[in-house]
Design goal:
The protein has 211 residues and is mainly beta. It has a six-stranded mixed sheet with strand order 1-6-16-17-5-2, with no helix packed on it.
Length: 211
């Protein structure tokens, strides 16, 4: 991420009740025969959220405005906790060092990028994880977990550096918690003060940052 990113998480109390998820961009061409040709325009999905539905009280609005102003609107990115997708493991479980494959040893490579794989049998999607939660990352080589002293994690990029290069063919896996790098997708937040009292708020769009 560029320097225009603040390593701070959007307040969890304000993200519960939000809406959003992954988006794909696919080009679909219908031929004269009626057949379709489909082409993925994006290599990776991009997540978009709306924090508006999560805000219920005047105190929430004040907290949001302070966060928005400090980020200068969309100028500075920040971390976002996706309630349903923020761990290497299934929802409700604790991360284990064998959760996700992140590479294969070659006897010389010591740096690996954290990633999460979705699906298995048909066309698994490998998503790079660039904002792991500090202190949550566990790494194993061929199923044996490495001590914390043998692993260095950069929580701002998701790169893992091992003290010793895994042997050729060794499976390198990891378990972790993570956030989504995002920014506000608007320069303006407009709040109807009467609507706030009625529990109705304007949209507050938030968009995932990609390199």
């Amino acid at each position: 991420m560029p320097a225009s990113f603040h390593e701070v998480r959007f307040p969890l109390a304000l993200s519960y009740g939000s809406r959003g998820g992954p988006e794909r961009r696919t080009e679909i061409v219908t031929l004269g025969s009626g057949d379709e040709e489909r082409n993925a325009l994006w290599r990776h999905s991009r997540r978009a959220y709306n924090a508006g539905p999560a805000l219920r009280r005047a105190e929430d609005i004040a907290l949001l405005l302070a966060f928005f102003e400090e980020r200068r609107g969309p100028l500075y990115g920040f971390r976002w906790r996706d309630t349903f997708d923020h761990a290497s493991c299934a929802l409700g479980r604790q991360p284990a060092a064998t959760d996700q494959p992140i590479g294969t040893g070659d006897g010389s490579t010591t740096v690996f990028q954290l990633a999460k794989t979705y699906g298995a049998a048909f066309a698994p999607y490998v998503r790079p994880i660039v904002k792991p939660v500090a202190g949550s990352v566990r790494v194993a080589v061929n199923g044996a977990e490495l001590p914390a002293s043998a692993v260095t994690v950069d929580p701002t990029t998701g790169r893992v550096t091992l003290a010793t290069a895994p042997a050729a063919g060794a499976a390198v896996t990891a378990g972790f918690l993570f956030d989504v790098p995002v920014r506000f997708a608007t320069d303006r937040i407009e709040i109807d003060h009467q609507a706030v009292l009625a529990g109705v708020l304007a949209d507050i769009p938030i968009l995932e940052l990609r390199r």
